[in-house]
Specification:
With about 450 residues, the protein is of the alpha/beta class. It has 15 helices and ten strands.
Length: about 450
Amino acid sequence: MRARMIKGMAAARLSVNSMSSPDVTPTTPPVPDRRFGAPADASRSLVFDPEGMTGEVVVDVVIPCYNEQAVLPASINRLHEYLTATFPFTWRITIADNASTDATWAVACQLAQDLPCVRALHLDVKGRGRALRVAWSGSEAAVVAYMDVDLSTDLDALLPLVAPLVSGHSDVAIGTRLASTAQVSRGPRREAVSRAYNLILRAALHAGFSDAQCGFKAARTDVAKALLPLVQDQGWFFDTELLVLAEHNGMRIHEVPVDWVDDPDSRVKIASTARDDLRGVWRLMRGFARGEGVLPAPLHGSPTVAKRPTLEQLVRFVSIGAVSTVVFAVLFLLLHGHVGPVVADVIALGACTVVNTAANRRLTFNLRGRTRRVRHQLRGLVAALLPLALNLIALGIAAAFGITEAVPLVLVLTVANAVASLAKFVLLQHWVFGARRR
């Protein structure tokens, strides 16, 4: 096996060194290096790693590229010089040739031959997401990152991007061009498209991150490898899907405002990319509705969420209930004169139930992230049928005694809600939020 690897690497060096210009495609490409890992596309990937780094690598920076023979040398040399001069962690650059039809692979091999801590990866099948999947799946670094080949993002943002991941503070990190402190130079059309797309993500998927499309992202490698089996897209929607799934599973996403200069020679086709992205959003919405997109087990090293003692839960539940009671009273008083006591009670109780469930989910039962959040809200509304039934009975009794004024009715309803509180707490503890714990 060792003799075969040496023979393959010798053939790789010969094919690169014999090229007289970057326009010549190597006639003897390097053989696959199985040390790179065994992702789904491993049978169609080649790795040229003449240095064969065996020491610990903290950050693996992946540069996906397609037909970039003209831009690649300047970008890789600039990135290499920057990392060598300023970066405090051990690092490696992985050039991921994404099924290029020009001499990008030959140029990538030459760069890997000439520069230390650089290797080249080639895929026969196109797809930016596919290239990142193979590169990240096979990386042994602690943190994996990627940036666009044109280096549109200021490199000074790289350390703030990866530092929270190295320290364990965050799980995923992204550059954002939409922060108030970001300095961005790009056309109004792309600016409008980017902002509209992120608004769609917020509305449809409740995304909490600000910029899904910035080509400047990183993740802890264990987090990336856990999420990759859940990610279906192989193209431009890949990193958006990865971010949504990370957030859906309660992972911490760190954002770094970046300085960005748009590449006028961008290969992104806005119309087709937007169409594919919308299809991806719809697919994720359907999957989440079916309960999909959830990791089977917590990640090793991920922060654990401790279950609060029952007494502490009860104290928090009562505190939230007190606030909800005041909000309910205000809403009922405002609506009573316009829609009548029954409708006012239903509206006020429904609104308070949604807020109350969200507050108890986070503060009382210490559940975080977006996993099963919709299911918790639906079960919270079902649990609210008990206080609603008691409220309607109380309103009927009040009407029988001729009580119609808003303030006395609020007092009657407050007593009814207090009676239902203990039963509601048991429902929240054992049914609404109990399914996830089991």
